[in-house]
Design goal:
By secondary structure, this protein is α+β, with helices and mostly antiparallel strands. It contains 6 helices and 12 strands. The strands form 2 sheets. Strands 4, 5, 6, 7, 8, 9, 10, 11 and 12 form a 9-stranded mixed β-sheet that branches. 26% of the residues are buried. Bound molecules: uracil.
Length: 237
């Protein structure tokens, strides 16, 4: 791909803006040699104002989403893209969230511009475990684990039962729930179906990939090793 297109696709500006950056000599190779718009140079060797280019298409990142941010590009309030470099919103192909977390849910959120990978992660066939920790308004009754594991629990206004889900009781009003599907507001609706109410919800892990030491609002790029950990068969639900 011609450099001008590559750099514009990474969100540095329109092709016109990027053509101007070339004319201004701001785009160089790793040795400081000025590059031209129709050069074809290895991504890793290109510099803009002396800085390496953003990652190429095929980018995957893990964000620790704080409460109060929506997984949307249009919401007038705080959105998860506000936590990333502004250029990332202008990339082509688009950087999308892999599924969604509610505004009031915190935790592990993947974003990628790789459509095939996105589908692989969300596909029910992948059976990737999504692990949630919930604090509840009322004490657990004791029959929730059996109801969630049954494979027959039906959510209001749906006509297919939920796949079996695992519940671990962490305290009288504190539970860890492991799901392999991602229906709308699923965790909140599951607890509503057993007469409870979710007060706080956090996702510490997707598949084999934990948030580890990412603080709320922090993100990191994932590499091939991380993706292997994400899809680790032992961590499936
Ligand atoms: N289930 C919910 O209810 N909310 C989320 O954000 C994720 C799963």
């Amino acid at each position: 791909m011609k450099l001008v297109k590559l750099i514009a696709n990474l969100g540095y500006g329109s092709r016109k803006d990027v053509a101007r950056m070339f004319r201004e000599g701001r785009i160089t190779d790793a040795d400081g040699e000025v590059l031209y718009a129709d050069d074809e140079v290895e991504h890793a060797r290109v510099r803009v104002d002396g800085e390496p280019l953003d990652p190429p298409a095929g980018m995957v990142l893990l964000l620790n989403k704080p409460v109060g941010y929506t997984c949307s590009t249009r919401d007038p309030g705080r959105i998860v893209y506000d936590l990333l470099p502004p250029r990332f919103r202008l990339r082509s192909p688009l950087l999308s969230t892999v599924g969604r977390l509610d505004r009031d849910t915190s935790g592990a959120l993947l974003l990628t511009d790789d459509g095939a990978l996105l589908h692989r992660i969300v596909s029910p066939k992948a059976k990737l475990a999504k692990v949630y920790e919930a604090t509840l308004a009322s004490d657990l009754r004791g029959d929730e684990a059996a109801a969630f594991a049954s494979g027959t629990l039906m959510l209001e206004s749906e006509d297919t039962p939920l796949a079996p889900a695992g519940l671990e009781v962490l305290g009288p009003r504190h539970a860890r729930l492991t799901l392999t599907e991602g229906r709308y507001h699923q965790v909140r609706r599951m607890f509503a179906a057993v007469g409870n109410h979710v007060e706080t919800l956090h996702r510490p892990r997707i598949g084999g990939l934990p948030l580890a030491d990412l603080a709320p609002g922090q993100w990191r790029l994932l590499d091939h090793r991380d993706l292997k950990v994400l899809f680790d068969a032992d961590q499936r639900g």
